[in-house]
Amino acid sequence: MDSKSQTSPPYQGSESFFRSVLASMEKVYLSRNPTANAILELVHSSDNGHICYDHFAFRTFGVDGYGITSMAKFFLDFGYTPRDELRFSAKKLKALWFAPPTNDHDNSGSGVDGPFPRVFISELLVDEMSPRAQEIIKKYTKVSGSGCKHAALASALGSLTWENPLYSDFMELARESEYAAWTLVNGYALNHATISTHRLNSHMKNINSLNHFIEENGFKLNTEGGVLKVSPDGLLLQSSTVADSTTFQFADGITEHVPRSYIEFAERLVLPQYKSIPEPEIKEFHRREGFEVGNADKIFESTSKEQLTRKTG
Questions:
Q1: Is residue 4 part of a domain?
Q2: pLDDT in tens, 9-25
């Protein structure tokens, strides 16, 4: 994955349509997550440059066609390529990431108008859950019918493909899997967007500087395993905020706060074989590619009750 010969095929389909769907997903995400919105504005104004997204991430239920493939289809149709599978046995999850298609004209824009983001899609291994948890999840996917065919549309609209759940079902799932409870109330909504720090223009291209800047401005970062998550090879550095919470009206009339989404930051360092290349000539394919189980496992905790309720200072 470290050479041009291993990049994905050229873009397929209408670029303007594809970007408009990404923009709608982003709009829903920003409307529900004031922290992400504020940080994007803060970094954009402070860095005096454009922001590139490293990846978009989604969560799914791995049952009845509602897993990874349901959301992946949209991206595959527009030239994305499946890459590595990751397993998270303790959380009963698996994930697959997808490389974006090559596009020679996508480097000047910012955000969803910039380089296409990688896509990271995870799924809950429902058949490994308790019988009661499986029963609850399958009740909603059954009600949804063929909703799994419209994952991208549901994400762009910010709508669930099933009816609003019962609060008792949400709480029962939360006791066994916070991931399951999150997916029940958020569905295919964008779980997080990730700023590519090394593509920034200022000192904040160093992720430690960016983390410090964010904390100085009063935002809370996920401390699971330390603020900075580092891959074993030391070349993939990641951090994230703690998820926002908003009120949600459950089907039984109860209104409670539920976890929404968060924003992540990723710095991909230059691979050893390209260290001699001058900085201005470094391209994305010269840098560390892919994802790391250890890092991602801790990033998942950004929506956990422990992180949401943790006091700062």
A1: no
A2: 666 678 999 999 999 99
Q: What is the pLDDT of residue 104?
A: 47
pLDDT band of 8, cuts 50, 70, 90: low
Domain residues for the domain of 168 are: 34-304
Whether 19 is in a domain gets the answer no
Residue 32 token pair:
């529900």
Q: Which residue pairs, CB below 8 angstroms and at least 24 apart, start in 76-80?
A: 77/12, 77/13, 78/11, 78/12, 78/13, 78/18, 79/8, 79/9, 79/10, 79/11, 79/12, 79/13, 80/8, 80/119
* Domain presence at residue 12: no
Q: Give this prediction's pTM.
A: 0.93
| Sequence-ordered list of residues with C-beta below 8 angstroms from that of 253, at least 6 positions apart, any chain | none
Q: Hey, what are 271's tokens? A: 């691979």
Q: How distant, in Å, are the alpha carbons of 106, 254, 276, 278, 288 from that of 283?
A: 13, 51, 13, 10, 11
What's 150's domain CATH number? 3.10.180.50
